[in-house]
Amino acid sequence: MTEPRGSAAHGGPEPAPDGTTPGAAGDPADVLAGLGSSWTWILMSALATLIPGIIVLAWPGGTLHVLAVVIGLYLLVTGAFRFVTAFSRGEHGERLPRLLGAVLFVLAGVLCLRHPLQTVAALSLIVGTVWLLSGMLTAYTALAAKDMTHRGLVLGAAALGIVAGIVVLALPTESAVVLTRLLGLWLVLLGLIELGIAFAWRSALRKGRAGDLPGPTGPTAPV
After folding, report:
1. pLDDT tens by residue, 172-210
2. Which residues pair with 3 in a beta bridge?
3. Residue 50: CA atoms inside 13 Å, Cβ hemisphere, count?
4. Who is most buried in 21, 37, 75, 144, counting CB within 10 A?
5. Dihedrals φ, ψ of 197, to 5°?
6. Crossing angle of helices 120-144 and 64-86, rounded to 10°
7. 125-131 contacts: CB < 8 A, separation 24 or more?
8. Could you give the dihedral angle defined by the CA atoms of residues 201, 207, 213 and 215, in that order, rounded to the nearest 10 degrees?
9. What pTM was computed for the model?
10. Which residues touch 35 (CB under 8 Å, ≥6 apart)?
11. According to the UniProt record, where is the region Disordered (predicted)?
């Protein structure tokens, strides 16, 4: 899940209307920071969660192998988005949990794509653990960032991720069809929350100057 990040550095270059920061081509970290601060990047991250959820719900009769591939690709792509958005926050103390979340998603995606682990129990354990831990990391980041915009929305996304993780881990899913519907439902809900965060961040960018605005945090969101 993607979550809005904390305040951008004052006195720096003013971002473009979509939230990107011009003149940051010299330093790779600055390039990633400018990209991760764009509301369109948050929007793409939301779509990366929403679209797999729709696919999974629309094709509940798909094989467990197909489900594992879809979920694995979702985790890998989300991990890439989280890695980029981690650099949109200047404070290294808040960057660390976001980078940990990105690594968590990537490792989980690799595990889902491994054929020996493509079982109902393995997928439930992997996805449930990722959602639970990433939700906790997102909540910690939101509470630690005093200047975060739309903190309530971010905390709501974190709570949804935690609940989703607990439900997937706690409920026995002996059927691949049951697991498919459960994961698809949570992916759609999480994707819709992230869409709300993306448009809320776009609205904040349009209403204020870059130096006075909190920058978005990622996927979690970002998480």
Report:
1. 776 778 888 888 998 999 899 889 888 888 887 777 644
2. 217
3. 13
4. 37
5. -65, -40
6. 20
7. 125/169, 127/71, 127/75, 127/165, 127/168, 127/183, 128/164, 128/165, 128/166, 128/167, 128/168, 128/169, 129/165, 129/169, 130/75, 130/104, 130/105, 130/165, 131/161, 131/162, 131/164, 131/165, 131/168, 131/186
8. 20
9. 0.73
10. 20, 41, 84, 88
11. 1-24
Q: H-type helices in the chain, by residue range?
A: 28-36, 39-58, 64-86, 92-113, 120-144, 151-170, 176-207
Instruction: List the structure tokens of 36.
Output: 């991760």
Rounded Cα distance, 87 and 89, in Å: 5
Q: How many CB atoms lie within 10 A of CB 68?
A: 23
Domain boundaries, the chain: 29-212
Two tokens at 172?
């026995």
